[in-house]
C-alpha cells in the first residue's frame, strides 16, 4: 500500500467518527509528500525523522506532528498496513510554550498606516485595514474573520454571526459603533452593487475572491516589516496576525481592572465571546504584561488598604 492511500483511509475513518480532523489531515498530507510516492514498508526511521525535524529549530510543532503520526501508525498497524512503526522511541523535551505578542496602540497605528500605503498586493489597502481592525476589536480567530459571509454581518443590529467554529459552535458576536462604521464603509466601497448571494464572502481580494489565510498572513508579514513592528524579547517568532486575538483579550482585561469590575466574574463572559469551550482556553491569552501587572497591583493595594474592589 502507498503512503497516500493509507493517509486517505485514516482521514476518512476519523471524519466518519464526527471529527473535523482538518489540521491533522494537512499534517498527514505533508508527511505523505515528504516521504514521496513509495510503499509504506519502505518508510524507515530516517524518512520519518526528516519529516519531524524539518529545517528549523525544535518547536511545539514537532510534538504535534509526532502525535499525529503516532495515531496514524497505530491505525495502520492494527489493520496490517505496516509491520513495524518507524517513529522515534521517545520525543525530545518539549520547548518552552510560545508567548503571544501584545500590540500597543502605537503599533496598531503603525500597522494601519502601513496598510493604507499598500499598492501592489492581492489584498488591497481597504481590506487590509478592515481585517486588522476587525481582529483587534473583536478577538476573532483569523479563520472566523475570513469565513464571514455577507449574511453574517448584520450592521443594523451590530452583530456578527460566526458559524461552526473550532469547536463546532455558532455564536453571535456583538460589535461596537466604531467597528460597525468601519465595516459599513468597507461594504459600501467593496460592493458598489450589493451581491444577490448572501453566502458571498465579506472580505475580498482585489479579484473579488475570498481572502485565504495564507494570503492574509503573508500580507500581514509584509505590513509588519513595513511598519517596523518587531519583538525585542529574544523570542524566535516575530509578531503574528493571530496575536491580535491575544491583544484583544488582554486589553479587555486591563480595561476591566481600570473600571474596578469583578474580573473573576467577567472572565467566563470573555471566554464565551472568544468562542472558548472552557475558561482555561482564555487564560492562555492573558499574558502578564507590565500594564496588566500594574493594574493588578493597584487592585491589590486598594483591597489591602481599604475599598470594595474584587480580588
Automatic annotation (TrEMBL):
Keyword Cytoplasm part of the UniProt annotation: no
Domain Tyr recombinase positions: 97-298
InterPro entries noted in UniProt: DNA_brk_join_enz, Integrase-like_cat_sf, Integrase_catalytic, Tyrosine_recombinase_XerCD
Record's keyword annotation contains Glycoprotein: no
Stored PROSITE patterns: TYR_RECOMBINASE
Gene3D superfamilies for this protein: Intergrase catalytic core
Alphabetized UniProt keyword annotations: Chromosome partition, DNA integration, DNA recombination
Protein name: Tyrosine-type recombinase/integrase
Species this protein is from: Variovorax rhizosphaerae
